[in-house]
Write a structure and sequence with these properties.
By secondary structure, this protein is α+β, with helices and mostly antiparallel strands. The protein has a domain at 53-164. Helices cover 50% and strands 18% of the residues. The chain is built from six helices and four strands. The protein has helices at 2-20, 35-51, 81-99, 104-110, 117-122, 147-164, and strands at 58-65, 68-75, 127-133, 137-144. The protein has a four-stranded antiparallel β-sheet with strand order 1-2-4-3, with helices on one face. Helix 2 (35-51) packs antiparallel against helix 4 (104-110). The longest helix is centred in the N-terminal third of the chain and has 19 residues, at 2-20. The two termini are 23 Å apart.
């Protein structure tokens, strides 16, 4: 349903842009672009720069847990050793950066302050971040015993699910 809505918005924007144009033929440089697709492409470009690996050759997942959650990234191709190692290097860095209150990478990738980040910074001493390897890449496990910190972690992960369009569950497991 969500994808159908996004496609419908793109079609409406394209038709509106086309009808506002003069009837002259459109060249690729003047063809209207879907703003939702363009924003996703821009985020993926920033993601490749900020994370150091291909966004199309990898898959992100975000899981909400009762005591926090998980950020998981894996290479789509099991033979893609380079992506797997780049993911691991990135997620090790993320765990250390987040532990010190540094959320610059997600702010760069999303070109905004993700939901939950101000609270996660404020509650930094109440939250733990650990890196774990997986067969296709790795994960950052985020946990806390503080209910306000867990709520902030959930806000952050829900933001990621929406922005990355992962289709991951928004329910706590």
């Amino acid at each position: 349903m969500k994808i159908m809505f996004e496609v419908l918005v793109c079609v409406i924007v394209a038709v509106a842009n086309a009808s506002a144009q003069q009837p002259a033929s459109l060249t690729p440089a003047t063809e209207p672009k879907c703003p939702m697709h363009d924003a996703q492409s821009q985020m993926n470009e920033r993601g490749e720069k900020g994370m150091g690996f291909s966004q199309s050759a990898t898959t992100h997942h975000f899981v909400l847990k009762a005591n926090g959650g998980v950020i998981e990234v894996g290479a789509n191709d099991s033979a893609d050793v380079a992506s797997r190692e780049e993911i691991r290097m990135h997620l090790r860095h993320v765990a250390q950066a987040f532990q010190s209150g540094d959320f610059d990478i997600p702010m760069f990738v999303h070109d905004a302050v993700p939901s939950g980040v101000p609270e996660m910074k404020r509650l930094q001493k109440e939250i733990r971040y650990t890196f774990e390897e997986s067969s296709s890449g790795g994960r950052v496990v985020i946990y806390s015993a503080d209910k306000d910190a867990v709520a902030a972690i959930h806000d952050f992960l829900l933001f990621q699910i929406k922005e990355h369009k992962t289709g991951d569950s928004t329910q706590v497991r």
